[in-house]
């Protein structure tokens, strides 16, 4: 039986993560209380393997055309294909294993997709559409989802209040970008999406403090063992 180093509770079965704080359990997994349904596991595993095989085949075919058949100078699009394929497999693996709850999945997807978009933009000759438009839109979506999750009570939204603190982190990004742009005199129409993101971050955080302030305080004290 595992003991969570953060919550100091004993967790039986073969759970890899604490049901309270979602942190990884350090000890070896024990015997499961109830046997998992084999058909579901097999179907999920088979689906993941099929997707991995198809993506790998596409990357190999793209690499063959890219490096062997195309003679004119160009950007190696197969490298970009490989990066996106790895990212898709990482996201699919987490979904199949059902390790994370809703707020954490949203935040992880935000980081991954934002990094991929910036890399794709840079790979194709940086135009700025990723950081000036798409990434702030994704941040606004993440802020809105976190705000909604704070008022839902289900297994999918477990510990949602803690992840609302990420609203501060998401809000710091547009603040820093806007600070340097104002300081350098480059604040223009391209900064409007980040201004909207900063406003939405402040509004959603204030809304949580006003409507769920006590629950948020209790959750933070539990996490910090205060």
Detailed description of the structure:
This protein is mainly α. It has three domains: 35 residues, no CATH class; 62 residues; 124 residues, no CATH class. The protein has seven helices and two strands, in the order ββααααααα. It has a two-stranded antiparallel ribbon. β1 and β2 form a beta hairpin. α1 packs antiparallel against α2 and α3 packs antiparallel against α4. The longest helix is centred in the first third of the chain and has 32 residues. It is flat. The two termini are 25 Å apart.
The proportion of residues in beta strands is under 5%
Structural class: mainly alpha
Any low-confidence stretches, pLDDT <50, length ≥5? 34-41
User: Which of globular, elongated, flat, extended, rod-shaped describes the shape?
Assistant: flat
Please count the beta strands (DSSP E, at least 2 residues each): 2
> Strand order across the biggest sheet?
1-2
């Amino acid at each position: 039986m595992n003991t969570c180093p953060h919550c100091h509770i004993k967790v039986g079965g073969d759970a890899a993560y604490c049901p309270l704080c979602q942190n990884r359990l350090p000890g070896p997994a024990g015997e499961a209380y109830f046997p998992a349904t084999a058909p579901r596991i097999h179907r999920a595993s088979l689906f993941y393997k099929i997707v991995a095989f198809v993506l790998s085949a596409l990357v190999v075919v793209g690499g063959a055309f890219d490096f062997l058949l195309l003679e004119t100078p160009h950007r190696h699009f197969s490298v970009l294909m490989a990066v996106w394929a790895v990212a898709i497999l990482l996201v699919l693996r987490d979904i199949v294993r059902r390790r994370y709850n809703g707020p954490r999945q949203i935040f992880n997807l935000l980081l991954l997709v934002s990094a991929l978009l910036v890399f794709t933009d840079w790979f194709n000759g940086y135009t700025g559409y990723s950081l000036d438009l798409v990434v702030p839109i994704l941040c606004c979506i993440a802020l809105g989802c976190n705000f909604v999750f704070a008022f839902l009570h289900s297994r999918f939204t477990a510990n949602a209040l803690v992840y609302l603190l990420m609203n501060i982190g998401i809000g710091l990004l547009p603040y820093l970008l806007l600070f340097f742009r104002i300081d350098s005199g480059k604040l223009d129409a391209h900064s409007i999406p980040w201004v909207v993101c900063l406003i939405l971050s402040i509004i959603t955080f204030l809304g949580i403090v006003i409507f769920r302030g006590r629950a948020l305080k209790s959750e933070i004290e539990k996490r910090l063992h205060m």
